[in-house]
């Protein structure tokens, strides 16, 4: 018999063998997805049993419930400037995509399969009711989540998802009121505030990050959906950064607010697939990270009405090895602040403004799917990137999201079948 807790092997009892699967009665364990939870302690287990006598396993799992959850495992890592302690505080998530901190200290977490859950006091809730249908295939599904700047009074949350429709799916953004009633939560008054008009069957490149600016407007990133030319079509919202009011209306100071040659919601174009975005207090603007093809991942500071080149210029190459576009630079197209070749597959971006790691003040923290690491990009007083330090390579999994908590700790999400939430704190 093998016993897993929170996706981690707790013990092996090889003398208990049989071809029979064992399922505990509901009064001891309540099934939750692929794991089982003890109702008295909240400890979660995934149990694989081959036993001769079912009552033996029954007794063992009953004992585990009585013992309660073990302390979360932690590791320490030495970096250039500080020693970091990493603690897995939750696991068993199905390809988690984003997290957001609620004012009461709880955490919203999205799973690409279409579930949204709340982490409260180290325990994951049941899925929140009322999430709209998502097209959960390929890179699509339920993606980013953000809290209204006025959450204390409006209880609104915002989220992105691949919205199904005629022809396939496309990136969409919605808002809803989060209602919490005892131990249950649901979404009410769900309203789609943006939906990509042209839907395709492509499983690729949805973008989907959300960032609120200090003026209350909302940035939404989109990918080119696997069709590079869409990123240069000014009448198409794919391959772009969009800027809207919280109700989905167009801010009057958008660069194309009057329409004409471009969609009014467009802020910038020429982006392949932005999966990292954050507002930067240092430069008072948006910072994004975006996927290249074979190389050419970029950090950009998108400006109103500017074009960032994809697929006309790129520092990467096609997966076939051929050149992309006309080269790495051309008039009318902006250059990146920084780029990677080979690619690291950047997803998730935080700008460190907390107190726990003062050594990293104003640094960019970029999650990487490909090398399973966090890239720390230090900057000077003008916001220019001055180097790169690669942290935690291979220690956790594919890093999908990076966020800074109110206490200054750094939280990571791993995009895996058994996805984890990892908290980084200063080691003692």
Automatic annotation (TrEMBL):
<protein>
    <submittedName>
        <fullName>Glucose/arabinose dehydrogenase</fullName>
    </submittedName>
</protein>
<dbReference type="InterPro" id="IPR011041">
    <property type="entry name" value="Quinoprot_gluc/sorb_DH_b-prop"/>
</dbReference>
<dbReference type="Pfam" id="PF07995">
    <property type="entry name" value="GSDH"/>
</dbReference>
<feature type="domain" description="Glucose/Sorbosone dehydrogenase">
    <location>
        <begin position="93"/>
        <end position="423"/>
    </location>
</feature>
<dbReference type="InterPro" id="IPR011042">
    <property type="entry name" value="6-blade_b-propeller_TolB-like"/>
</dbReference>
<dbReference type="InterPro" id="IPR012938">
    <property type="entry name" value="Glc/Sorbosone_DH"/>
</dbReference>
């Amino acid at each position: 018999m093998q016993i897993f807790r929170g996706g981690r092997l707790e013990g092996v009892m090889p003398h208990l063998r049989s071809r029979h699967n064992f399922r505990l009665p509901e009064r001891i364990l309540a099934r939750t997805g692929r794991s089982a939870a003890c109702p008295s302690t909240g400890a979660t287990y995934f149990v694989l049993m081959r036993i001769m006598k079912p009552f033996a396993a029954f007794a063992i799992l009953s004992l585990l419930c009585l013992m309660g959850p073990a302390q979360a495992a932690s590791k320490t890592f030495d970096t250039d400037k500080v020693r970091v302690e990493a603690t897995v505080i939750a696991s068993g998530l199905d390809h988690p995509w984003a997290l957001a901190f609620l004012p009461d200290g709880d955490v919203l977490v999205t799973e690409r399969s279409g579930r949204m859950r709340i982490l409260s006091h180290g325990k994951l809730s049941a899925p929140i009711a009322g999430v709209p249908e998502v097209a959960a295939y390929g890179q699509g599904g339920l993606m980013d989540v953000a809290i209204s700047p006025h959450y204390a009074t409006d209880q609104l949350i915002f989220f992105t998802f691949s919205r199904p429709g005629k022809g396939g799916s496309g990136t969409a953004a919605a808002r809803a009121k989060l209602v919490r009633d005892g131990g249950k939560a649901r979404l009410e008054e769900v309203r789609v505030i943006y939906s990509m008009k042209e839907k395709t069957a492509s499983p690729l490149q949805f973008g989907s990050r959300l960032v609120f600016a200090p003026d209350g407007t909302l940035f939404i990133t989109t990918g080119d959906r696997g069709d590079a030319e869409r990123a240069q079509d000014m009448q198409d919202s794919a391959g772009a950064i969009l800027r809207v009011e919280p109700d989905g209306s167009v801010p009057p100071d958008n660069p194309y607010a009057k329409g004409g040659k471009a969609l009014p919601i467009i802020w910038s174009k020429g982006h392949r697939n932005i999966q990292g975005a954050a507002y930067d207090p240092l430069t008072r603007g948006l910072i994004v990270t975006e996927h290249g093809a074979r190389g050419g991942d970029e950090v950009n500071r998108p400006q109103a009405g500017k074009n960032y080149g994809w697929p006309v210029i790129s520092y990467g190459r096609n997966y076939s090895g051929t050149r992309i576009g006309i080269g790495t630079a051309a008039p009318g197209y902006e250059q990146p602040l920084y780029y990677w070749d080979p690619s690291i597959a950047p997803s998730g971006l935080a700008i460190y403004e907390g107190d726990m790691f003062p050594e990293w003040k104003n640094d960019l923290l970029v999650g990487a799917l490909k090398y399973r690491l966090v890239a720390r990009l230090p900057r000077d007083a003008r916001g220019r990137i001055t180097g790169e330090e690669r942290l935690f390579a291979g220690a956790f999994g594919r890093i999908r999201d990076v966020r800074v908590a109110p206490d200054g700790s750094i939280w990571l999400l791993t995009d895996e079948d058994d996805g984890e939430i990892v908290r980084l704190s200063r080691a003692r």
